[in-house]
Amino acid sequence: MPTVITEVDPQLATVTAPTSGAADAFDPDSSLVEELDRQVRVYVETGVADLLGLDQDGLVALVEPLRAAVGQLPSSAPAAREGDDVPFLLVLRVEDVNDAVPAMRRGAKLGVSVIDRSELATYVPVEGVEVPDGPYLLTGIDVGSEFLSVPPEQALAAVRERGRTPLTIEEGVALATVRPDRLRPNRCWSVMGSRTGTNQRVPAVWISERRAKLGWCWDRNPHTWLGAASATARVTG
Fold first, then answer.
1. pTM tops 0.85, yes or no
2. pLDDT on residue 23
């Protein structure tokens, strides 16, 4: 049976946003505050801000309380492997994550989801994961390549033993949107912080047919190309 791609409104800003010249790339030499400004621009240029009814000025004003917190963050995730760390991620809460999925762009290809809307609505944060209501910073991110070929169930236990937090579906999609350079062939990630509580499915973001894809795998199945993303904390203004 062929995989069914979840349809989105073709007029969504995340679909109609330009595919060339959009979302200026991450600059490792920029300051953390400059990186916050870049992430704001990415959300505007890929149409995610439009899902919240915000233009660039509106989004800048909304995240202003986070600016001071950014300046106090370390520049890399503790113990992250080279190429796996992201100092912080600005996370925006959208009503339906599938509407934000096209913003996970790889070149001219839009991101897609194979989780239908009815199932997606059943995923909630796992026990111990508290997600702020408004915009927030996810800090000290490690996309978790060390967990390649490790079942998500075991990876989650290891992450928690270290006092770290697994990423949620929203955070996994946001990471692939803002830092597409961290989503690499054979180095993709599970987002173990969201579960339905009724089945063994663990959501994940990976590359298929040269585009980013939101889907799921079984919590006891290892995959050679799928690690497990985690972070240090969620910070509000």
1. yes
2. 53
Q: How far apart are CA 136 and CA 65, in angstroms?
A: 9
For the chain, the structural domain boundaries read 13-235
Q: Which whole-number Å values give the CA distances from 3 to 20, 43, 187, in the listed order? A: 28, 28, 22
R_g (Cα) of the chain, nearest Å: 16
Give, to the nearest 10 degrees, the angle between helix 32-45 and helix 56-63.
Answer: 140
Per residue in 82-97, pLDDT tens? 789 999 999 999 999 9
Alpha carbons 134 and 227: distance in angstroms, whole number: 28
Helix (H) or strand (E) holding 217: strand 211-218
Q: Which structure tokens are listed for 20?
A: 């060339």
Q: Which residues pair with 137 in a beta bridge?
A: 90, 235
CB atoms within 10 A of CB 136: 23
Q: By the 8 A CB rule, do 96 and 120 touch?
A: yes
Note the pLDDT of residue 1: 43
